[in-house]
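Exercise 7. Given the encoded structure of a 457-residue chain, write a plausible sequence.
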């Protein structure tokens, strides 16, 4: 533990210098989606690589990906007995518009009321920087890191990590490790230690029901011809019942009911007041589960859009020629996205009312859910380190959203992926006035010091 103490003291004593370096990092406008920033993207990659070299990583390079470069570095000085971690993050940021809604320049970092304001302060340069600073602290105080480290900092996360999957596949050995750590997520409340141990998967499709070849006069044909909007309404209603249970055959195959342990963990999370934040008078949830359990840990089925027929002012007495609905599902572990997509398609095709033709378009982007056992020692140690640094008991959450890189790393390596996020709900990721609290910066680094110390040798 002496090791941890010295590293923490180093971070405290050198806080000003570290913040100055973070400012420099945040000053580089590494917007990945806009080709006007191509040079800046490269500068941010170079900055990341230089920092890793300065820290003492024995190998660091900029890997060409076909898009923006990926920064890769290796440290193997902890010896053969020590585990190897792959640390993933991204140095690219979201665009800043609308610029006029920023209270200070997004690329001139400014500290106000204990928060540092800049694009990327939380997502993800700030959190990447915290990890690098902690590696620096170990090197400076002990001359080595407690474990071997591989670093993968990409420049395309905000544009869907276009080239990452193929790079990982091509260089499978190079990126291989015992476990992965990612700091690119947040806590449920400011300074409330949070372990994100499950992410949902995703799939979807679009269904169009076609009736007559053109819109028809409802007086002349109503009663003889199937109305595609009505048919679509019946079809959609056949896919989920009033108990919010999805009634597509085989949809829940492989989904385990929530265990008492999971229910307990979910119960510990101070849930959002859905009625207050959404404005609805009543919440709904799958029979047998409350709203929090359903959003966090059970699969969902949503119609995201529906259109067809006359949408203009007043009345138009027609039987429309077609109607379309867009459908997506959030999946949990045990569900294969491709199989679910096929089940939805089959259900639709088998339930098309006579007199309507169906066209199904499958969504291309789909992903599997990710879950790591909350009792896994690497997770339990993370929870304990959070508690030590933040002085508060850690809560365990699953999230309705998806992070593609997690799914890819899981499918390629099948190793534990630990999401050590420090963001807060007020960080305004992707929005004007993105910021990150300096208090979380300090406590987050302290957590990381404890963690590397705990999992290393
Ligand atoms: Zn991010």
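Solution.
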């Amino acid at each position: 533990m002496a090791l941890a103490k010295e590293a923490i003291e180093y971070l405290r004593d050198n806080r000003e210098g570290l913040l100055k370096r973070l400012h420099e990092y945040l000053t580089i406008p590494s917007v990945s989606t806009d080709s006007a920033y191509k040079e800046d993207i490269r500068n941010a990659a170079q900055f990341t690589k230089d920092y890793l070299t300065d820290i003492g990583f024995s190998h660091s390079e900029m890997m060409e990906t076909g898009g923006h470069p990926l920064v890769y570095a290796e440290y193997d000085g902890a010896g053969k007995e020590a585990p190897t971690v792959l640390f993933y993050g991204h140095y690219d940021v979201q665009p800043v518009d609308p610029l006029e809604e920023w209270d200070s320049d997004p690329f001139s970092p400014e500290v106000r009321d204990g928060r540092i304001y800049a694009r990327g302060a939380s997502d993800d340069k700030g959190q990447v920087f915290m990890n690098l600073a902690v590696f620096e602290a170990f090197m400076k105080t002990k001359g080595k890191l407690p474990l071997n480290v591989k670093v993968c900092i990409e420049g395309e996360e905000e544009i869907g990590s276009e080239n990452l999957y193929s790079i990982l596949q091509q260089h499978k050995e190079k990126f291989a490790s015992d476990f992965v750590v990612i700091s690119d997520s947040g806590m449920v409340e400011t300074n409330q230690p949070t372990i994100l141990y499950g992410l949902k998967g995703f799939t979807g499709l679009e269904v169009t029901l076609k009736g007559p070849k053109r819109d028809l006069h409802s007086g002349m044909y109503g009663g003889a011809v199937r109305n595609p909007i009505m048919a679509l309404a019946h079809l959609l209603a056949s896919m989920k019942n009033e108990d919010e249970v999805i009634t597509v055959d085989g949809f829940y195959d492989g989904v385990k009911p929530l265990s008492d342990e999971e229910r307990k963990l979910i119960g510990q999370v101070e849930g959002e007041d859905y009625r207050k934040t959404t404005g609805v008078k009543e919440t709904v949830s799958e029979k047998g589960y409350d709203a929090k359990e359903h959003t966090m840990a059970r699969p969902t089925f949503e119609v995201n859009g529906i259109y067809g027929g006359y949408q203009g002012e007043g009345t138009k007495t027609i039987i429309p020629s077609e109607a379309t609905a867009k459908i997506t599902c959030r999946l949990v572990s045990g569900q294969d996205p491709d199989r679910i997509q096929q089940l939805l398609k089959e259900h639709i095709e088998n339930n098309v009312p006579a007199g309507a033709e169906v066209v199904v378009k499958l969504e291309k982007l789909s992903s599997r859910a990710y879950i790591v056992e909350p009792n896994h020692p690497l997770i339990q140690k993370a929870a304990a380190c959070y508690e030590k640094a933040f002085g508060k008991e850690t809560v365990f959450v699953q999230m309705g959203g998806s992070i593609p890189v997690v799914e890819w790393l899981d499918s390629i390596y099948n190793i534990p992926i630990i999401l050590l996020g420090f963001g807060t709900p007020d960080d305004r990721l992707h929005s004007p006035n993105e910021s990150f609290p300096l208090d979380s910066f300090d406590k987050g680094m302290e957590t990381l010091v404890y963690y590397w110390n705990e999992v290393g040798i």
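Remark. The radius of gyration is 25 Å. Students should compare their own answers with the one above.
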